[in-house]
Specification:
The complex is a heterodimer of chains A (about 270) and B (about 290).
Chain A (H helix, E strand, L loop, with lengths): L1 E10 L2 E11 L4 E5 L6 H8 L7 E6 L2 E2 L5 H10 E4 L11 H6 L8 H5 L5 H13 L15 H14 L4 E5 L7 H18 L2 E6 L2 H7 L2 E6 L2 E6 L6 H8 L31
Helix pairs in contact in A: 5-6, 6-7
Chain B lengths: L9 H40 L4 H5 L4 H12 L4 H36 L11 H13 L2 H12 L3 H25 L4 H8 L4 H37 L5 H10 L5 H31 L2
Helix pairs in contact in B: 3-11, 4-7, 4-9, 4-11, 5-7, 6-7, 7-9, 8-9, 9-10, 9-11, 10-11
Classes of the chains: A alpha/beta (about 270), B mainly alpha (about 290).
Chain lengths: ~270, ~290
């Protein structure tokens, strides 16, 4: 059970996350939606402790995560894997080495600095890559892979951590619709097969509806919606995105299905 | 995940990757052994060829500094006077260094942009500009300064020209490495709006590379302060001339030498502090 109580984060005078209260039970897949700057990323980064909350507490299974320091903090970060929008892999290293980075917290600094990873770990890493369908690229440098493949390498690194929670910060925002679907399918499959808690920031409504058990809407750092995907009506969505009547759900969609658009103006805007 | 069914089975991939890891480990082991062996052998050779005997000399390494410090402490009351006396000479040295760093850096920016792949105005001439910078770095400052002093007579101008020449070559090399790491996307963006080469460099590349340029230039300024002090030894004026007199005069002048060292040290500290201050400002964007 992940328990976020009255968490606030300020950057200077700017409040990114305001008095947020969320309780997430084990094994739930939660989607957080909202427009850019709504505080979704900040919230996720606070759970992983990449940044610290200004006020409030985050507790997981009885441990106050927001108070951890040093080795205890690093071991929490191992239990709480993070997937980033821009993948955040080391581009010049090969795929397997990047996946093996998931074991860094378990192994000694000295052996990992000399790249001495145990054979079992290497084999496990390749098994995970096989599960995600990219084992063929094991020896390639990450920079030679496409975005969708890189994001699957990042998911493999997360799985290598054997985490209790997987946090995904806009995992499909840099991907084309086809790859986006592959990555989201992979996350859902991990959730269904391993029963891990997944908290996923998304900026599209349809993805959240299709893949998540529960949807949380954020606006201006506050929670404005928390419920089942079916409860997410068009008016609730307008409220989350702060939009007026002209807002349609398709406008946020990145799925392959058709997008209706207004007819173009026939008058040229430039000087002839 | 369509490609899961294609390609080699997992067992082959595992074997292949493990073999690659083994090979890499063996290579690094060999490199480590060769490195240690060469270090040991090289040390032996250097010891044999040492004229006076390395181990005998080692005991006397600290004799000169000890004597200098001892005498400087004995004459401590004269220190403030000495500091004041040599301050004008220090200013001359710093001026030589500052002017040559400024001129050298400007020349270096031009040379580096002309010799970076992807940015160069004339890509075919990259090698020419590279060799030009190699020549500038290869000639020792002292040699250029001696020739110029012979032709132009003693004073700060020959030192300035000599240091500028070397600085342009050295900074040009460092700057062009910075340029290589610059992101080409903004440059492409400016090309797409029809910008000229100079506009692309000034508006697309400079904002990215300026913080690194500045810190390299300030490091070079530090080095140039020392270089211009050394050139004072061969007649280029400034604090180097004073240091030469103080040190080679033998007994009785070590307090002056100590004062000059203190001045040089303080100069380096000030440059270092200023450089990190301005660099931070530039990186954070004022």
């Amino acid at each position: 059970m992940l328990d976020i109580r009255k968490v606030t984060r300020r950057f200077g005078t700017n409040v990114a996350v305001k008095n947020v209260d969320i309780r997430i039970p084990e094994g739930q897949m939660v989607g957080i939606i909202g427009r850019s700057g709504a505080g979704k990323s900040t919230l996720l980064r606070m759970i992983n402790r990449l940044i610290d909350p200004s006020e409030g507490s985050i507790t997981f299974a009885g441990t106050e995560v927001s108070a951890l320091r040093g080795a205890a903090l690093r071991s929490w970060q191992r239990d709480c894997a993070m997937i980033f929008q821009q993948f955040n892999l080391v581009p010049r290293l090969d795929v397997v080495s990047n996946v093996l980075h998931g074991t860094l917290n378990r192994r000694s600094t000295l052996s990992t600095v000399f790249n001495l990873f145990p054979r079992e770990d290497i084999h496990q890493a390749i098994d995970i890559l096989e599960r995600l369908g990219i084992a063929d690229h094991a020896q390639k440098r990450v920079e030679a892979l496409s975005g969708g493949q890189q994001q699957r390498v990042a998911i493999a690194r997360a799985l290598m951590q054997d985490p209790k929670i997987i946090l995904a910060d806009e995992p499909i925002a840099s991907l084309d619709p086809m790859n986006a679907q592959v990555v989201m399918d992979a996350l859902r499959k991990i959730h269904d097969e391993d029963g891990r808690m997944i908290v996923c920031n998304l900026h599209t409504l349809d993805t959240a509806r299709r893949y998540c058990d529960r949807v949380i809407g954020m606006r201006g750092g506050e929670i404005v919606f928390d419920g089942l995907p079916d409860e997410l009506t068009t008016s609730a969505a307008r409220d989350i995105y702060g939009a007026d009547e002209s807002f349609s759900e398709e406008a946020t969609s990145t799925s392959i299905e058709t997008l209706s658009r207004p007819a173009p103006s026939l008058e040229p805007a430039y000087a002839l | 995940m369509a490609n899961a069914t294609l390609g080699a089975p997992v067992a082959d991939i595992k074997a292949g990757y493990t073999a690659m890891v083994q090979r890499k480990r063996i290579y690094s082991g060999i490199v480590l052994i060769v490195f240690v062996a060469m270090l040991a052998a090289g040390f032996d050779l250097a010891d044999e060829r040492n004229a006076g005997g390395f181990w005998d000399g080692l005991r006397h390494v600290f004799d000169f500094p000890t004597e200098l410090v001892k005498e400087a402490i004995e004459k401590a009351p004269a220190l403030p006077g000495n500091l004041a006396k040599y301050f004008p000479a220090l200013i001359e040295t710093i001026n030589i260094a500052a002017v040559s760093t400024l001129l050298g850096a400007m020349l270096a920016i031009l040379l580096s942009l002309l010799s970076t792949r992807g940015l160069a105005r004339w890509p075919r001439l990259i090698a020419v500009f590279r060799r030009m910078m190699d020549v500038m770095r290869a000639l020792p400052e002292v040699v250029i300064a001696l020739v110029l002093i012979f032709v132009l007579g003693g004073g700060p101008v020959p030192a300035m020209i000599a240091i500028t020449f070397h600085t342009a070559g050295a900074l040009g090399k460092l700057f062009s490495e910075v340029n290589e790491n610059a992101d080409l996307k903004p440059v492409e963006g400016l090309t797409s709006v029809g910008a000229s080469w100079l506009q692309r460099m000034w508006l697309g590349v400079m904002p990215q590379v300026a913080p690194n340029y500045l810190s390299y230039a300030l490091l070079r300024f530090e080095i140039n302060v020392r270089a211009s002090a050394i050139l004072g030894f061969v007649g280029a004026g400034g604090i180097g001339s004073e240091l030469r007199i103080a040190i080679s005069w033998g007994a009785g002048r070590y307090d002056a030498a100590a004062a000059i060292f203190i001045l040089l040290f303080l100069t380096i500290v000030v440059i270092d502090q200023t450089s990190s201050h301005f660099r931070n400002k530039l990186v954070r964007g004022f």
